[in-house]
Amino acid sequence: MMERRQPIPVEEAIKKVHQYEKHGKVEWVPLKDSLGRFIAEDILADHDVPAFDRSPYDGFALRAEDTKEASSEHPVEFEVIDHIGAGMVSEETIGPFQAIRIMTGAKIPDGANVVIMIELTKTFEKDGTSYMSLKRPLKSGDNISRQGEEVLKGNVMVKKGTSVTPGVTALLATFGYAVVPVVKKPVIGIISTGTELLQVSDAMEDGKIRNSNLSMVYAQVLEAGAEPLDLGGVSDDFDKSYHAVKEALSKVDILITTGGVSVGDFDFLPAIYEKLGAEVLFNKVAMRPGSVTTVAAMPNGQLLFGLSGNPAACFVGFELFVKPIIYKWYFKEKPFPAFAEAKLTHDFPKANPFTRFVRAAFQFTGSQLSVTPTGLDKSSAVTSIAEANCFIVLPGGTRGFQAGDQVRVLLFQLEGGGSTCWMTN
Amino acid sequence: MMERRQPIPVEEAIKKVHQYEKHGKVEWVPLKDSLGRFIAEDILADHDVPAFDRSPYDGFALRAEDTKEASSEHPVEFEVIDHIGAGMVSEETIGPFQAIRIMTGAKIPDGANVVIMIELTKTFEKDGTSYMSLKRPLKSGDNISRQGEEVLKGNVMVKKGTSVTPGVTALLATFGYAVVPVVKKPVIGIISTGTELLQVSDAMEDGKIRNSNLSMVYAQVLEAGAEPLDLGGVSDDFDKSYHAVKEALSKVDILITTGGVSVGDFDFLPAIYEKLGAEVLFNKVAMRPGSVTTVAAMPNGQLLFGLSGNPAACFVGFELFVKPIIYKWYFKEKPFPAFAEAKLTHDFPKANPFTRFVRAAFQFTGSQLSVTPTGLDKSSAVTSIAEANCFIVLPGGTRGFQAGDQVRVLLFQLEGGGSTCWMTN
């Protein structure tokens, strides 16, 4: 019964999983529904920006040559022959000593080659006609935003694999993407194993606990932008579990199970992988929590993530192994989270025989990142996942750490990690 | 036409807006739909954790008093009378020199007062009966996780105003919240003003630009967890604009307009506020971009945010003024974003007559935060919003900054700011 397992280093485990990267197909969604999705094709500028020569100020458009003689002593007067706001196009052509009043963003009228800001002019009426005068010579081309000076038509504006943020939607709108090519979401099935599990809506029962991993992993899948599929629970029964897993595989891109991967007497996942003909990539990782995390691959490359039934280990297992695979599905260039150093605010006296992932919260003191474990006392063990926004990563083979020590932190909520494993960044 | 406006400091503007904070009502949603929502009532533990005395290991439960004589030379033998996994409850009561094989998480059987880890025992069969022997005396109570040692029933587990993360869903599930009390989302109307605006699906037209602010603000509202309502565009016509705004107010909790707040000849918002009887809290802020940002309050306290039509200014205006008001609606204790210092990676030679918000991207070098403006050259002006994940905040009255200088950054994607204005943190 006491199966011997060979633990492998975290980094090696991550790399093994990433040999089975897959990418999603494209689908088109309305721009309004694209927030948080991932771009499936390079987004091109469909026009120059600006699309036409335009005024960067509220002012007057005119011919620079008419201002040659202007000075404080000898203001030059211009007849104001039109008045246009952004979006309007004047039908007039500016002739000698004529000007058109123009608002920010409006197209430079024909005949004009310069704009003067409204604050530098004086306006007045004479015989029912509007006039403007100015006191300085102007240089042709001044105060004109030139067509294409920011972007040329055909430029790549948003790269494939970029996640759609509000700022990205502004680009998509500018370039006419009323529907957006995004990567189809992978369907990620979740099977909960364990006789001890009650439904969330169940009353408490002796010896049992409510299934919190399902809701947590479901939310982690959503947060990673994928499509969770709750495939229900299976009890600690081999045949039922085997059939549930087998059936699930036909419905999903990736399958997650929670529980059942330990070496306990009722942990059937290892035997299920064997019967399915799946290759077990690893079934023990040199880390805490989550050492029993198991990942297997079907002959067609479909991944089965066997996460621990322990909630903290389950959470870590998802963030380390599943989330980057989802981001890779989306062509994300850097699918791994930001990895930084931080100053430890409290002692962490536990020794670390293996790489330890400590649930923690980071904060800034000036420009210095500091980090506090969220599970320092027993009463907060339950809430430590809820309060954590990063992991402190303590190397295996180290003794305790003290307040003030520099430690490495995996900022799993932040982008900015590498293109391969975060540990090697 | 050239209205005089009195600019007020950013901090004062933020404080004025927050005099009109409102809070949302409660609604109940299924746990699976609660990710990203905000908790409307304190979440209580509905049971102790652990809910019963349980085993933290795979091992054997037995009576400590029977182990008194155990030693390496004299192992003590126990009859194994049952075998339970997590979720199972043994019906047996342990008597002298009896043990029950017990898996992690299972309830301690009646009669037992200690658990020994499986690794410290030897199991064998004798005449068809299972036995276990051990070689050391045990202390009553060892290796038992006591009922309530982590959480006592009635404890507050998640505070009102907390946003639901995957970790929080685990707590909600544990304590039986199959439906979750969350704050009803505020409906945030968006009206686009400007004759120059084309729809995203429109072909380009001379003198016009596509409306990118609508999609961007719509996405910003979604990202802040609120309910956007696209109320269409109005052209630069006073009466139409007035009626559109008036009608909109009856449909929304908060109204955003984009454009029309400048002092250009076709900017009607100021006159609309006046005709509505709204109090203008400010119509000029000592900042760049976004100096024309205007906020007004109706007599009933309903807020009207007049954001600039310039995309960068519009983006900043939302993050500074609208987002924290949404978070306050959700009872968020600290509605302002994280504010930190960072090392500037590039020169930023522009002088800053007013507080300047520079779109930028942050990264970590070790534990040191550094920051790079995303709009350093003209060609990236269009993409600078899309690439930004923070603002560098340069104080008004300063000259340029150089690479290596420490600057302040507003990390608008990160929580962790203060309960009042971020500038005073």
From TrEMBL, chains A, B:
Keywords: Magnesium, Metal-binding, Molybdenum, Molybdenum cofactor biosynthesis, Transferase. Signal peptide: none annotated. Residues 189-328 form the MoaB/Mog domain. Its cofactor is Mg(2+). GO terms for biological process: Mo-molybdopterin cofactor biosynthetic process. Pfam families: MoCF_biosynth, MoeA_C, MoeA_N. Its EC number is 2.10.1.1. The keyword Magnesium applies. The keyword Magnesium applies. It is an enzyme of class 2 (transferase). Belongs to the MoeA family. This is Molybdopterin molybdenumtransferase. It comes from Bacillus australimaris.
